[in-house]
Design brief:
The structure holds two protein chains of two kinds.
Chain A: H1 2-25, H2 33-43, H3 47-57, H4 63-93
Chain B: H1 2-21, H2 26-47, H3 58-81, H4 87-110, H5 120-147, H6 157-178, H7 186-205, H8 213-235, H9 238-262, H10 266-271, H11 293-302, E1 305-310, H12 312-316, H13 320-332, E2 336-341, H14 351-358, E3 366-368, H15 369-374, E4 381-385, H16 394-397, E5 417-421, E6 441-445, H17 448-461
Parallel strand pairs in B: 1-2, 1-4, 2-3, 4-5, 5-6
Helix pairs in contact in B: 1-2, 1-9, 4-5, 4-7, 4-8, 5-7, 5-8, 6-7, 8-9, 11-17, 13-17
Classes of the chains: A mainly alpha, B alpha/beta.
Chain lengths: 98, 462
């Protein structure tokens, strides 16, 4: 109960996001499903925001966590940059003369 | 500063919605991708200015900048190098990195913590993010290896059974732990959970059959999104929650779409099962009519409206480009050419469309299954290239067939069907294709690419 009380706004937010997500995505035509997927994949790289925030708070002499955090940032960036670049490359190929 | 960051996050979240929304048409999609990418850069850049009460230690800053630069360069290189047939592998690989990032976040955040009732809900979310992230991480790596043909299906009872035990353990252990029954610090406990979840990720993807990969990739994509959303809830960061949930929704949507298109329930896909053909009595004698390249070229030269139904075999034979040439050639002769694409053609949702787009095929001529079926009777000639089960009429009229119920492209309703095949081998479902025995269907044996090339050569002479 306490949990609901404290987090009710987040719960609203999550539920609305689910509906918006499904609504927006169900309008994507089948021909763009692969770019949709790689684009969505890139968006899930927003986890990098969390990784950067975490790195700000790690003490500068905590080498274990700095290493893990550094790897996390590398992976998150790879997810974002690779995802958006490859989506862009695919979308460039879709053309119409009509 | 704080308010600027919050507004920035809001803009980023909206940019993600716009990016996804613009995917609804190939014309706007490029802009959408750019908008979402800029939103992402904004969100990440602003995070550096989060007030934390002291300045950022130089070491941390250097590590972050180096890691970001390296990640960007590596990501760009991978995306420039990849071939379109290898797209499913690359998407899996990038998905693994997102999952890995979520897992590491869970581990690092756990380090200074002890189990405390005041922050119980936060710790549960952290565990949820860690487990989903770790599953997506190893699961995606195995999926990538399988797609690259490096790892075979491994479908024994042992694997399936241990995977289930692990799944139960991952749910039960945290409950037991928070009742104080496991004498471990929070960090070692999290490392242990991450270890279990990583093994689970491997075991969960191993038994899944090659043709079910489109389902698995979509599902793993969605799991990464959910991991992001859980982590976002830990930080109370709205842009992470929104981004994660959108991806989760997209993944689940595509997963279910792929399942319907293959006539398989998600549970069966995950168990790696496939309906076995009910007895051998269903095999019927078929009279197969063979057709030569010259005859094919001739009937194409008379056709007003031609449909091409491509399957993954087309991509395996690297025949997309020749196929595009054939289309251009026919169009010069005032023949209308459409591609009718089954949702599961290719190795991931929409894969075939990308392969054809790469071969300079106009996206206006890429038709979805339903649209193609509606106008099927108008096509003078239908070329089936490298596809099999998706054109099997047994899916509609033979209730005892393993493919029964699967939505198909009704090629048999057109005036003439020419199936290009290497041999009389069966499709993935291992069933006889009733189409081949029909009166209006003939078969052109041979390698798809070589045959197409010859058809083009012959057409030039006609």
């Amino acid at each position: 109960m306490e949990f609901l009380n404290q987090n009710i706004e987040d719960i609203y937010f999550v539920i609305f996001c689910i509906f918006i997500g499904i609504e927006v995505i169900s309008n994507v035509p089948a021909i763009l499903h692969t770019p949709l997927m790689s684009g969505a994949n890139a968006i899930s790289g927003v986890i990098l925001v969390g990784a950067v925030y975490m790195m700000l708070t790690i003490p500068a002499d905590d080498y274990l966590n700095l290493t893990l955090g550094g790897i996390a940032i590398f992976l998150g960036t790879l997810n974002i940059s690779g995802g958006f670049f490859v989506t862009g490359r695919m979308l460039k190929m879709f053309s119409s003369k009509k | 500063m704080e308010i600027i960051i919050k507004v920035g996050y809001l803009i980023a979240a909206v940019s993600f919605i716009l990016g996804l929304k613009y995917m609804s048409s190939p014309k706007k999609a490029k802009t959408g991708n750019l908008i979402a990418a800029m939103g992402m850069v904004l969100a990440v850049a602003l995070t550096f200015f989060t007030p934390i009460g002291h300045s950022i230690p130089t070491t941390n800053l250097i590590i972050m900048l180096v890691a970001i630069a390296a990640g960007t360069i590596v990501g760009k290189r991978y995306s420039d190098k990849v071939q379109m047939t290898g797209m499913p592998q690359l998407v899996s690989l990038f998905n693994a990195t997102g999952g890995g990032c979520a897992m590491l976040l869970g581990l690092v955040e756990a380090n200074p913590m002890e189990p405390r009732p005041e922050i119980l809900s936060m710790q549960i979310l952290l565990i949820a993010g860690l487990i989903t992230g770790a599953i997506a991480f190893t699961g995606s790596i195995i999926a990538e290896r399988k797609l690259a043909g490096k790892v075979k299906d491994y479908r024994t009872m042992g694997v399936v059974f241990s995977a289930r035990i692990l799944l139960v353990l991952m749910i039960l252990l945290p409950v037991v732990y928070f009742f104080g029954l496991i004498p471990l610090g929070f960090a070692p406990f999290m490392y242990f959970l991450a270890f279990l979840a990583m093994i689970y990720g491997v075991l969960f993807v191993l038994p899944i059959g090659g043709a079910d990969m489109p389902v698995v990739i979509s599902l793993l994509n969605s799991i990464t999104g959910i991991a992001t959303a859980f982590t976002g809830l830990v930080y109370g960061n709205k842009v992470m929650i929104a981004g994660g949930i959108f991806v989760g929704a997209a993944g689940i949507f595509l997963t279910l779409l792929m399942c319907t298109a293959m006539n398989r329930s998600l549970m069966k896909v995950l168990a790696g099962k496939f309906k076995k053909s009910s007895g051998t009595g269903t095999e019927e004698e078929q009279e197969i009519k063979e057709i030569s390249v010259a005859e094919t070229a001739l009937s194409l030269s008379y056709a007003q409206k031609v449909a091409i139904i491509p399957g993954y075999g087309l991509a395996v034979a690297q025949a997309q480009h020749v196929c595009g040439q054939l289309q251009q050639m026919l169009e010069k002769r005032d023949c209308e050419v459409d591609y009718i694409i089954h949702p599961v053609a290719g190795r991931m949702p929409g894969h075939m469309n990308v392969l054809l787009a790469e071969a300079n095929v106009d996206y206006a001529s890429l038709k979805e299954m339903d649209e193609g079926n509606e106008n099927m009777s108008q096509y003078d000639t239908v070329l089936v290239i490298g596809a099999n089960d998706v054109v099997n009429p047994a899916a509609e009229n033979k209730p005892d067939s393993p493919v029964y119920g699967m939505p198909i492209i009704r090629a048999h309703e057109s005036k003439q069907v020419i199936v290009m095949k290497r041999s009389m081998g069966k499709g993935y479902a291992g069933v006889q294709n009733d189409l081949f025995g029909l009166d209006n269907c003939s078969i052109l044996f041979g390698d798809a690419k070589a045959s197409l090339q010859e058809i083009i050569n012959q057409l030039k002479l006609i």
